[in-house]
Structure formats: C-alpha cells, structure tokens
Design a protein that fits this description.
Number of strands: 30
Strand order of the largest sheet: 1-2-4-6-8-10-12-14-16-18-23-25
Shape: elongated
Oligomer: single chain
C-alpha cells in the first residue's frame, strides 16, 4: 500500500491547482507546462508513472488536498530513485498491468535498438510473470500510453518501432544520448501524442515540422526539442495546425532565419522558448495574437529593429527575455503597463537607448526578502527581476517609489548592497547618476559619445533624434540617427541637423 500512497501523492501534486506551490508551477494541470516554473523562478518536476488511490487513510482528504506539513510533503518527494522506479500503474489489487503481446514485442524491439545498458533495462523482459516495465504506462487493454525514460542513458537513434504504439500519449526521452536526425514517418502516425520531450540529446539536422502538426486536429500540446544540434530554417507555416500547442521549447539549437509568423495560430500557447539560436530579422507581429502567452524567451539571437509595442500589451505575459539581440531604439511606452504584472523583464545587451524605463518594483509584504527586514511593520518586496544592462540608456535614474507607506522604507544605503544586485541590473549604460549599486559601472564616456553623441551637451543625435543600429550590413558606420521631422542625419558620430 505504501507505494500506491506515495504515488498518489505525486500524482495529486502534479494535478491539484490548490496546493501552495509557486503559481508558475501550477499554471496547468497537465505536464506540458511543468517546465514553466523553471523558466520563471524555480523548478518543480515530477517523475514516475501515475498510480491509483486505494481509498485508505493516507493523509489525503476527500478533495485530494494533502493533510501534511510542508516537511512531510518534501519527504514524500525525496523517495529514493530505486523506490520511485516501482511506481508503475497498479489496479485495485496492486498488480502491475502488463503490455499485451504486440506491445511487449515492440518494447523489446526498442530495447534491442537502444541496447541493454539503459537504466532499469532489466525490467524489460519477455520472461513469464508480472514484469515492472520501468518507464512504461499501459491502459486496461495493455496498450502503451506513456513511454517515460528521461536521463536513462539511452544511446542510438530514434527507432521506427515507435510507430507500433498507436495509443501513445506521452513520449519522454529527454536527457539521453540519442543521436542522428528526427526520422520522418513516425510522429505523423502517432495520432494520440500530446507530449513530446526530446530535449537535451544529440539530435541534429532539420526537423520534420509537418510530422508534429500534420492536421487541424493535432493534439500535441508540448514540444520540447531544446538542447540539441537541430537547425535550419523553420517553414513559415510550420505551426498553422498547432492549435493545441501550449508549450514550445526550441532553445539551444542552430535554427536560423525568421521566427515563423504561424506561431500566431497557437492561441493556447503559454510558453515560447527560442533562446540561443540564430533567428534574425524582426519579431513577427502575429505574437500579438497570443492571449495566453506567459513566457517569451528569444534571448541570444540576432533579432533587429525596435522592441514591438505589442509585447507590453500581451494580457498574460509575466516573463519576457529579449536580451543578447540587436534591438535598438527606445523602449516602447506599453512597457509601463506591462511592468505592473511582470515577474522578469530582461532587455540587456542590446542597443537600446533613451531614459531608463521607470518600472514599479515593490509589492507589500514582509519576510526574508522584504525590504526593511522580517520584523518591520511595513515592508516591501522586490517584485520583478529587471535587466537593463549593456545598453545605451542615459540621464538620471531613481527608483521613484510612490507607494502608500513607502516613507517606512529604510535608507537606500542600507538596502542597496543586499537587495538590488539580485533584482535590477543597470551597469554598462550611459547613466549620469542613479541610486542603484552599480552607478559607477557605466560605459566610458567615449563609447557613449560614439553612440550618436550620447552624453554630449547637445544630447543624443543633437537632441533631435534617436540612435539606432545601422541596418546596412557591412557599413563602416555602426550607428545612425533616426531624426525628428524637419531634420536629417549627418556626420560621424551621427547627429541630426535641420534639413
């Protein structure tokens, strides 16, 4: 009974939206969005296979809530890997449901393709009796519904035998040593697939996008291909049929070209992670049509132009990372609205300029992270991680706290060394003064002057324009001025003169 009880706890932790976990860890019931927490402010991951509750008193009430202390919940989650490997699907008598003959043969073919050295390979056997089949979940008919072998030391390629699992809902092969390309003719035949985890392997080559989203009724809600060597351009209409997609992870690969406009078809998507690729050109305007988008990470690419104003108007967005790109110009005004709900805004290491945006950064509350200390009667907590460093913002900058009771905040000199370095970054800009810790870590005056006269008495572009990255590749002049009406760009460093 103990194994069934422990497994029920794990299952409820994954499904219940009422447990006291970070909001980002509970944004969806299904596992396709479990990774959101690690993208924002921590991680909460579950392993093992679903089990059935036996109805006995085990610390659960009738609503599925845990009548356990936080420490007791943690103890449940820290069971040994060996014991967790026993969490297979049980019927009312706690006997494991066996794959039927056809599925057993297909599983053994997989084992032959991957070798016998993967984790718990000995549980995959054609011997008579009740086998555990570690990482395999079957339905009442013995058909495989889930194949979950993360970090199992799998080697080799993705075998064709996967097509034999027509009822497969979840495929989790992440964190292994799988190599070669993603084969065609497999995923289009697995019409029940909802979750595909192939991240952190050694896969390479182009992705057969049409295989994943082959028709208007595609059920795929999670696609994780991050951490491989996959590359090539993504076809513009790759996501036209991805209407059920909720989480897309393509980071740390070699994709290039434009971000496909068809992502605008994914009305249910909450996470888009495209970081550390070679995407270029402008951000597609169709991103504005994603009402459920909570996390957008396009850091470490070659995106150009100004930051689109629509990003600040996305109603659900809480985590935005545009850092390490080629964006230039001013921060859009919509970011003032976005800042009230954002948890993280990262726009560092671009070519942005203008006055540094004023973002509200405090929310009422006391505790370890509370400004003023846990014993203060009125404390405020830094609400967002803000990364503005490595740009060309200029002028003066102040926190400008305007909240009821803010007069109770401690002096800046006592707070700054402990709180702000962990939450706001403004170094390597052209700021003349600020009340933040890294005020002295600004660009040399010469660098600011070369950026269209930023820091000069006349101001950037002679006070009549905005400095942007030169769109002409190979030009000797790295920056140009976008001048106000009636003025034209001229000179090097560029400035604006009356035309």
């Amino acid at each position: 009974m103990a194994r069934v009880v422990l497994l029920s706890v794990l299952t409820l932790l994954a499904l219940s939206s009422t447990l006291s976990l970070p909001r980002t860890a509970l944004v969806a019931a299904d596992s396709d969005r479990r990774q959101l927490a690690s993208t924002v402010d921590g991680s909460f991951q579950l392993t093992g296979n679903p089990g059935l509750h036996d109805g006995e008193d085990d610390g659960l009430d009738d609503t599925g809530l845990l009548n356990l202390t936080e420490a007791e919940q943690t103890d449940f989650l820290r069971q040994s890997e060996a014991e967790e490997a026993d969490f297979l699907q049980y019927d009312s008598t706690s006997a494991p449901i066996q794959p039927n003959d056809a599925q057993r043969a297909a599983l053994l073919a997989l084992k032959a393709a991957w070798g016998s050295d993967f984790f718990k390979a000995e549980t995959w056997s054609d011997a008579d009796g009740e086998q555990q089949w570690w990482g395999v979940t079957v339905d009442a008919d013995g058909d495989v519904m889930a194949l979950e072998l993360p970090n199992a030391n799998l080697e080799g390629e993705i075998p064709d035998e996967l097509t034999k699992f027509q009822d497969l809902v979840t495929l989790d092969l992440r964190g292994n040593k799988l190599s070669g390309s993603i084969p065609t003719g497999i995923f289009s035949n697995l019409t029940s697939l909802r979750e595909i985890y192939l991240s952190d392997n050694r896969l390479e080559g182009k992705v057969p996008w049409i295989e994943f989203f082959y028709s208007n009724d595609s059920k795929v809600s999670t696609l994780r291909l991050d951490g491989n060597k996959l590359g090539g351009k993504i076809r513009p209409k790759a996501f036209d049929n991805a209407t059920s997609l909720q989480a897309l992870f393509l980071g740390n690969n070699k994709f290039y070209g434009k971000i496909p406009r068809s992502l605008g078809s994914c009305k249910e998507i909450s996470v888009i992670d495209l970081k550390n690729n070679e995407f270029s050109d402008l951000m597609p305007t169709t991103i504005a049509d994603l009402p459920a988008l909570e996390v957008l990470d396009v850091s470490g690419n070659k995106l150009t132009g100004s930051i689109p104003n629509f990003l600040g108007r996305l109603p659900s967005l809480i985590n935005l990372d545009l850092s390490n790109n080629l964006f230039s110009g001013l921060v859009p005004p919509s970011f003032q609205l976005f800042s009230h709900t954002a948890r993280a805004v990262k726009i560092g290491d671009n070519f942005l300029t203008g006055p540094l945006p004023q973002f509200p950064r405090f929310s009422k509350g006391c505790g370890v992270n509370g400004v003023g200390g846990s014993d203060s009667t009125s404390c405020y907590m830094l609400r967002s991680l803000l990364d503005f460093e490595g740009n060309f913002f200029y002028g003066n900058y102040s926190l400008d706290i305007q909240l009821p009771g803010s007069e109770n905040l401690p002096a800046m000199s006592t707070v700054c060394p402990y709180e702000y370095p962990e939450s706001i970054y403004v170094s390597d800009n052209c700021l003349s003064s600020t009340d933040l810790c890294d005020v002295e870590k600004q660009r040399p005056p010469k660098e600011c002057e070369e950026f269209c006269g930023t820091g000069s008495p006349e101001g950037q572009c002679g006070g009549k324009g905005v400095c942007v990255l030169n769109p002409l590749e190979g030009s000797a002049q790295k920056f140009v001025c976008e001048c106000d009406a009636g003025f034209i760009p001229m000179g090097n460093p560029p400035t604006c003169v009356k035309g």
